[in-house]
Amino acid sequence: MTFDMELVAKIIWVLFIVAWGVIRYKPNIKSRKIAKSVVSRTLKERFSMIVSSFGLGYIPAVWVFTDFLDGFDYNQNIVLMVVGALLLIVSLRLFRLTHKALGKMWSHSLDLRENHKLVTSGIYEKVRHPMYTAFWVWAIGAAFLLPNWVAGFSGLVGFGTLFFLRVGQEEEMMKAEFGEQYEAYMKRTKKVFPKVY
Asked: Facing residues of 110 across strands?
């Protein structure tokens, strides 16, 4: 019996996407019940969301479900595949903790809810943007898991684009809303990786 590592990598990726969707489902329903007080849907924001969606989702899906990108395949290594799968599991855990901490304050875009509260405990104690941490871990995990130069690395480019276009804008929005409270929070935390960045 032969072990088709490419097929296993594709199955792992699909299971990850399903699990991610399940984690997001209830918070998405709950947060929609709370009106938004601040909405930032600039052209830059829309562009970054589209690029990130293609990088993390659509391009890998093209590789998983079609042969369109097969010319960019390389031989999979079991160690790389296991590392990628473990990183995706870590990413799911981070998504779960972040959604749990934010509760109804969660939003997929640059929005603030009515009576928005600044969350600084739990997973938010050491980093200001653990949701972005989860996405970075997803992108890195996919690069290890998917043995295709385009599909594997598209998440790093896609999410990297969103991150660097959005994070400064988001922090300015939070400073405008929470003032000195957020500035003090910034001084004692890192953006996405504890003690690093």
From this structure: 40
Does the domain made of 5-188 have the CATH classification 3.40.190.170?
no
The mean pLDDT of the chain is 92
Q: Exposure pattern of 9-42 as b/e (b: 16+ CB <10 Å)?
A: bbebbeebbebbeebeeebeeebeebeeeeeeee
- The first and second tokens of residue 69, run together, are 């990108």
- Indicate if the alpha-carbon torsion angle 112, 115, 118, 121 is positive or negative: negative
Assessment of whether the complete model's pTM goes beyond 0.85: yes
Residue 76: in which H helix or E strand, if any? none
76 contacts 6 by C-beta, under 8 angstroms: yes
pLDDT value at residue 2: 54
DSSP state at residue 54:
I
Question: What are the sequence ranges of the domains in the chain?
Answer: 5-188
The model's pLDDT over 99-122, given as tens digits with 9 standing for 90+, comes to 999 888 888 788 887 888 899 999
Burial, 74: exposed, middle or buried (Cβ in 10 Å; 0-12, 13-18, 19+)? exposed
